Every structure is written in C-alpha cells, then in structure tokens.
C-alpha cells in the first residue's frame, strides 16, 4: 500500500487505507449532522400539522437530543464490550428505523418516540467515530483525520438542509403533499434512510481498533491491523507500538464511572475539561442556526423560499471553513484555533444581538429595517465561520484524543452526553427565548462565547502531536 505521507519516525505511515477507513467511520458524523438538522425545514409544518405551541415545538425539535445523550452515555460501555465496529453497526440500524418511523408518524408523540430512537443512534455514532479514528490514526495526522468527523457532520447538515429545500420546492411548501399522499416534511425524514444504510454497509468492511484488540488480549489481530492499516512492517517498531499500547492499558479493567473520580469536584480534572468543552460548544448557540434558521429568517421578513436558500448557503459556508480547519489543526494546534473561534463568536453574536434590537413589529410581523437585515445575515455567516474553523471540529478532535487510554471510551461517553444535554437545553429553550426577544437570546450566547474564551486560555492543554499512550489525566 502506498502512503500518502512519509513515516512519522515510529514506523507508522499515513496510508490511503487509513484515510478511507477514517472516512467510513466518519460517515457516522454525516448521519449525526443529517438527522439533527433535517428538522430545520419541517419545524413550521410540524407545528401547524400538530397544532403545537412554542414549548411543544421546542421539545419536538430537541427531543432527539435526549436520545443522543442516552446513546452517548452507553456508547463507551458498548464499545468496550462489543468493539468499535459492532457498535457502529448498531447505530446504523437504529438510524434506519428512526428515519422510517419519523417519516410515517401519525401523532406528535409518535414522532417524538422515533426521534428519540434516532437520537440514540446519533449519540452512539457521535462517541464511537472520534474514538475509532483517534485509535487507528498516526499521531502526526490524527488531528486532520479526527476533523473528518466534523467535516462529515457539516456535510450531513448541508445535505439535510439542501434536501429539505428541494423537497419543499417540489411540493410548493413543506406542509404541501408531495409523493404517495405524504407531505414534503415527512419525506424530509424518510430521506435519512439512504445514508444510514450506506453507513451500515461501509462499516462492515473496516477493521477493529488495534487498541481495543490489545485490551481484549487479541495481540495477533492487533499486529495484523497495525501492519495493514498503518503499513507498519518494521518488526522492532511494531513490537514497540504494541508494547506501548499494552503498557498504557496495563491497569485496564472493566471500565467504570468510578474510574473518572478525582479531587476536583468529584471528577478528574481532564474529565471536567472534556465536559466543559462539550457544554461551551453548544452554549454558544450554534445549533439554533442549524435547527431554526429557516424559521428565524422567515420570521423577520424573508419568504419561505428565501429562508431555505439562506439556510443552505450558511451550511455551505460551514463546510468550506471546516476544510480550512482540517488544514490548520495539525499545523497551528488545537488551542489557538479555539481562542480565535471564541473571540470571533463573541463579536459576531454581539452584532446579531444588536441587529435584532433594531427589529420592528412582533410575532409574525417582526422585520429588520433597511440594511440591518443584511448586517444580520453577514454577522450570522461570520459567526458560522468562526465556529466552523474552531469549536466545531476541534472539540471532537480533542475529545477523541485528550483522555488517557484506560478511561478514553468512558470519559468520552460522559463528555458527549454532556454535549447532547447542553444541545437539548439550548435547542428546547430557543422558541421561548425568541418570544422574549432575539436580542436577549443572542446576547446570552455572546456571553457564553466570552466565557469559553476564558476557559480555553486557562484550562485547555495542547495535544498536537502527542501520542495517545502519552496522554495524562
């Protein structure tokens, strides 16, 4: 197998195969983005179809995130018991079932149940993909391969928003009938069946993580994976790598939450860092843009068609800046990108808060006067740029690599669960906050962006180029 980069000095090569394997695993991120963002184009139609108020709408949109928290919580246990690959296959099955159930739901509570099931699948995939990628990638390009998770997420968001816009355009509106007597918003959910099936088929062909194999005492299999995936054929380097993995897992036992205990408010400091990274990633309000943007722009005077177009354009910006982040994360490091992102988000969110303070009217009659609407659009897309180049991909890279081997799966599950709960808190409260005033909502998110800047400066350690076996608590 030819390599796409030179050896890193430890006998590891970044082969074409390891890139393809990481890409297959990262497809779970595509489903993560697709399944969570697909609701964007359906919000108003669901609200009208089931006669929901603001609180009920918020819960219908965000309920999948509770399932994601549950899936993330148990993902580490499943990954340690069944392996990374089998766990990804379970996630694929859950996502196929949820897409069918959500698209054919007859009542709002029926829809909520299926979105919870899909959320569990998304939560599992959100934990396993970065764990698996970090465990098969050479250290010198681990950041770039880890960033593929976020690239897949933003591509999933883009695909969901694009398909929403296309289906709504075909039907003449999300609430209008499309095919087989079903309204367009139902087909928005059914569209998720295809990528879920593709994901399930692709992960059938990826090898198990060498670190999981070593932890289970399957050293011969781990040796084969390291030889084939990382092109390690130097016996001395291969033996040293296996020995390093064994040493880091020497105290390995059945993972327990008690492994995460420490003197810092009951948890190890590194676990708190992971939890707070996850919480801040959501508390800056990014998913308000991707779950509610069509409704948001429609509410301030843009037509439904224009609102869909703006939302798709924003998702394209998100994809492009994620590519920039992938090119930078292993060059300038994780921490500098987070600092840049936090500062930029604080400024742009503050600008959005000011723009909405200039709005006139209320409710469905709310509008942004003159050039203020353009400023709001620019600020919103600049905000996505700063998030996409920093907190979007970098948090997933850090969560996949920052924990010591013996607690990685469990600690990542806890941090990812915290992320989903934070996402739920932000997403479910936005409709009510919007009724209080968008200035207050975006001002609140700007405040959290400032807090995230302080947190990164004082608590986050740089992990660029550090081997997983050398990570410390």
UniProtKB/TrEMBL annotation:
Bilayer-crossing regions: 14-34, 54-75, 87-106, 112-133, 145-167, 187-206, 263-290, 310-329, 336-354, 374-399, 411-434, 440-460
Domain Major facilitator superfamily (MFS) profile residues, every copy: 21-464
Protein keywords: Membrane, Transmembrane, Transmembrane helix, Transport
Chief place of localization: membrane
Signal peptide: none
Superkingdom, natural source: Bacteria
Location relative to the cell: Membrane
Keyword Transmembrane: yes
Keyword hit for Transmembrane: yes
UniProt xrefs under PANTHER family: PROTON MYO-INOSITOL COTRANSPORTER
Protein family: Belongs to the major facilitator superfamily. Sugar transporter (TC 2.A.1.1) family.
NCBIfam families found in the cross-reference section: SP
Protein name, per record: Sugar porter family MFS transporter
Originating species: Rhodanobacter ginsengisoli
